[in-house]
Amino acid sequence: MSRRISVSGLGYLGLVHAICLAHEGFEVVGIDIDRHRVDGLRKGRLPFFEPGLEEVFRAARRRITFTHRVADLADCDVHFLCVGTPQSADGRETDTSHVFDAALGLVPYLKPDALVVGKSTVPVGTAALLSTALRQAAGREVRLAWSPEFVRQGRCVHDTLNPDRIVYGTGGSRPQDDVDVLDEIFAPQYSRGTQRLVVDYATAELVKVAANAFLATKISFINAVAELCEQSGADVVALAEAIGMDARIGHQFLSAGLGFGGGCLPKDLAGFQARAEEYGAEPAVTMMRAVEQVNGKARTNVVELALDMCDGDLMGKNITVLGAAFKPHTDDVRESPALDVARICDALGARVTVHDPLAIDNAKKAHPRLRYERDVLRAARGADVVLHLTEWPDYRELDPESLGRVVRRRRIIDGRHGLKPEQWSRAGWSYRAWGRPLASTFFDVDVDAQAWAVGG
Ligand code: UGA
């Protein structure tokens, strides 16, 4: 394999992509404007936790270098753009300036035949604009393709090496040549069964946000049904199990609870909504707005349950929050539903102590007002109510009896429907979960086999 590849932007997306390319045998140069990050990587230090990344990095170290100087990319044949595209506070605007800066910065160093490949998540229309900007800056056509990324945090390495599909958006004058280059780069994935789809720029850009908007819709759908279950006495966990058995529906992303968070789903949903509004696609706007509302309500439902258990007043109550990360197997707390609930409880006057196996340092930075404990039993000491808000496997293994000995009141709210209610009830705990009946006739779901375990 002779191609030399650059990857601009060494965040979750770019760094994992760069390391996996090196792992597949390519010579890779990773570039980031964050010198601290680059220096750390040069010394072999990864800037975040991602399962399996350390091992792949170690194995691929001699084929990957890191820099903050664009001139060091001059001998690369293919340049991937993986820089961030932050959303404005109201979610309506996406800042694509890093994409343009990274791409245009390459121009003086581009080989005549080099291919630039965008991977960042961008609003529809960005690739076409960038293509024009590159042509103007270079005084000639610069080959550009767009290939969105579908990796999940916590499974980035697996998803990069074994994606379900790879999408190429093409729009230049040599689409077949662009496809050939990308086919060569992703040959290892294709040999393992990945599917490929070639589309135009706009479709490629929309595929990405539409996929995330669909996943968000699926989660909000089951949370909307949970609302109905809560009022009618039905059990949403059993219901999800039953409807998921229909192959057309499937079990993945059908776990009701606290809803979605993280750096992607909320951001892409807002972006999708903003673009739909801009283009006058009213049904999409209405639908996405509803998805967002249901997701927000899922958080207040948990607070409502806590209030209910504490006689309507959280003032001075000790609340233990199990989980800070936006989902298990990551230390990422961006848009974390768990921390949002912790913050609301704190605002209502509770003394909130947060535990997480991995994300405490990041959580502390985001919410310094809350208290943190690295040991579960210490976190639960004196608790009036325990909230299970991120479904780490560690929490499923907790012994209700031992935990019961340190809390003040044996009361637990399962915000993720991940615990075995009977186990907790047997040990004398009051167990509540939104959309599950209070009675002891719980559907005995195999929590380990739930969609979380495989899909999340
Ligand atoms: C998401 C998509 O799943 C990836 O395909 C996509 O590539 C990525 O965004 C991205 O745009 O880069 P990720 O943000 O890592 O991946 O997280 P997910 O696994 O999708 O989970 C998102 C949220 O949904 C989490 O807060 C999770 O707890 C929640 N969730 C998930 C539920 O509430 N219920 C479910 O059934 C599944």
Structural features, described:
There is one protein chain. With 456 residues, this protein is α/β, with parallel strands linked by helices. It folds into 2 domains: 190 residues, Rossmann fold (3-Layer(aba) Sandwich); 240 residues, NAD(P)-binding Rossmann-like Domain (Rossmann fold). It is 44% helix and 13% strand. It has 19 helices and 14 strands. The protein has an 8-stranded mixed sheet with strand order 3-2-1-4-5-6-7-8, with helices on both faces. Strand 10, helix 14 and strand 11 form a beta-alpha-beta unit. Helix 1 crosses helix 3. The protein is elongated, with a radius of gyration of 24 Å. The C terminus is likely disordered. It binds uridine-5'-diphosphate-glucuronic acid. Uridine-5'-diphosphate-glucuronic acid (UGA) binds next to helix 9 and helix 11. The site of uridine-5'-diphosphate-glucuronic acid (UGA) has 23 residues, from helix 9 and helix 11.
Number of helices: 19
Number of strands: 14
| Beta-strand percentage range | 5-15%
CATH topology descriptor of the largest domain: Rossmann fold
CATH homologous superfamily heading of the largest domain: NAD(P)-binding Rossmann-like Domain
Supply the number of structural domains: 2
Q: What strand order characterises the main sheet?
A: 3-2-1-4-5-6-7-8
Mean pLDDT: 94
**Distinct ligands, ions and cofactors found in the model:** uridine-5'-diphosphate-glucuronic acid
Integer-rounded radius of gyration: 24 Å
Shape: elongated
First and last CA, distance: 34 Å
Major sheet:
8 strands, mixed
CATH domain class name of the largest domain: Alpha Beta
